[in-house]
Amino acid sequence: MTDELSLPPRRELPPDVRARLRAEVAAGFAEAPKRGRVVAVAAAVALLAGGAVAATQLARPSHDVSAASDGGGAPSTGLDRCWAAVEKAGKTAAVPDRSKWVTTFTAAEGDDVVEAFTAAGKAMFCETTATTATLSNPDVRTDGGKTRLLFYTGTGLVAGVADASWDSLALSMPDGLGVAMAKPQGPAHQFTAFTHTDPAKTHLFAAPVIDGRISATARVDLAAIPAPLVSVTDRAADRKSPAGQALGTCLAQVAQPPADADSYQPGALLENGAYRVVLGRNAGHTVACTTEPGANGTTYHLYRDTFIGQSIPARRLSVPELGGKVPFVGIVPPSAASMKADFGQGKPFPITVTNGTFAAWLPDGAKAIGGRPGESWVLVEDARGAALFNGYVPMK
Description:
Layout: H1 15-26, H2 35-48, E1 64-67, H3 77-89, E2 101-109, E3 112-119, E4 122-128, E5 132-135, E6 148-152, E7 157-161, E8 168-172, E9 178-182, E10 190-194, E11 205-210, E12 213-214, E13 220-221, E14 230-233, H4 242-253, E15 265-272, E16 275-281, E17 286-292, E18 299-304, E19 307-308, E20 315-317, E21 327-331, E22 336-342, E23 349-354, E24 357-361, E25 375-382, E26 387-394
Antiparallel strand pairs: 1-2, 2-3, 3-4, 4-5, 5-14, 6-7, 7-10, 8-9, 8-11, 11-12, 11-13, 15-16, 16-17, 17-18, 19-20, 20-21, 21-24, 22-23, 22-25, 23-24, 25-26
């Protein structure tokens, strides 16, 4: 038995093949692939997008979904947190009373949980993370039952309502590149998807999947992104673990501490003598906080959302060299349990994964091996060994 990882060699698609595949994808996937073909099509999409989509995203939901109905009676931790957030923000008059909230279904990816529910007949969504509770605005119009986006948060969670005739739907970028598939549920035909995209920079479209086919002609523009009614940091992040202490100290010492410093949950921690890099994530952002010695004492620097490259959901943060070493750091899906990289040294290099982040010092002699210059191949897996990302990310 061996722990060796056999990674495929670098292979470039011929220009004519890339153009043909992109044209087919942009046409809206006129034919939805059968289950046996989904991974191949999704992999082609991932390759065209420079690793922007995990190959498994289009094959099956990337999160756990459970139907439920609390009838407004039994306590629901997520909904109770969102109600408390409404009370804290002084906006109880803007939403139906908590007793009228009825759960449709719950979906989760790691500690990111979304509850689809109705409140006095209005379709709503509540997202809770380790530190934050976010609630959709109940007054967003639903266009008479037509497909519409009602909720898009900083974590990349997308939620809305679909046309009653849509049994399932496919979410995609403007050029047709697939992002995720979703299954509407409940009387309001609500749907959710963990897309790992940035609402400030992403323009999504939706198309129905009818009788196993994705209808390009019925594609709907989801450009309007309504703001949540409230988003409140309601739970203190860990500041007791070594990474938590390091993050708390660093955030407090930077020249301009972020106003939402308490909302950042610690991630992976790198140390090299007096040099240190610690990662942190909250509902909408990722930070890397660095500590390094200097002639005039210890200095601290904060790097927020300094993502480079196009890879999603494994994304690389750009952090300068510290003490002669390059931090190879970034984010992965919350369910990630392990990660390996190929730095051209003849064997896989293990990368530490913690709370949806990854970190390692680039080894001496590391070489880029990837689809584009400066990229290296990585494999991210969950606790069951299922691949969450298998592609290229920038090495530096």
